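**Protein of interest**
===
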Amino acid sequence: MVGGSENERFIFKELVPVVVGAGNLEICGADKLAGNQSALYPAGQGVSLYIPQSIINATVEDDILLSVEYSCHGVPTIEWKYTSNWGVQKIVEWKPGTQANISQSHKDRVCTFDNGSIQLFSVGVRDSGYYIITVTERLGSSQFGTIVLHVSEILYEDLHFVAVFLALLAAVAAVLISLMWVCNKCSYKFQRKRRHKLKESTTEEIELQDVEC
């Protein structure tokens, strides 16, 4: 914690936004908060926000819960935005107990909860970035919070591809060996029949020669 009163700053690990007072948002770099990855945003004119886990590591196709808790007077408006190298996107906005307004880019991929949390289904690498929640009271006061999501590829996908490729090669090799065995068998039978016919033909010629004599 740095400073005092309204200018108190609560800092996440790594590069994360920092709340200054009740309405300003800054980006913090080298400063890190010791301890676990939770973050508490104090009440700013009546709104307080708590994030149990501010940094989440996931793999492709995981379902991720961005968990938060808030307290305020009355029913607030909750908004989630996504910030990454590709820009800023609005994900969803709603009031607890009402229908959520989910953006087209996240249709069928987001589930909202009355405590302000959201769940993302089947995340991909492009979902990595900063997820910013804003809780706004009816009177206009608000509070920000951020969760950092890292999504990585599943390493065994490449191994799976190699395994499938090797299995395919083994299957092709087995088919070729079977074909060679069948061809060899047919060739052997053909040669045997040919030798048998040749033998019969030779026998007939000898018999004819004996008769002529």
The longest strand covers residues 142-152.
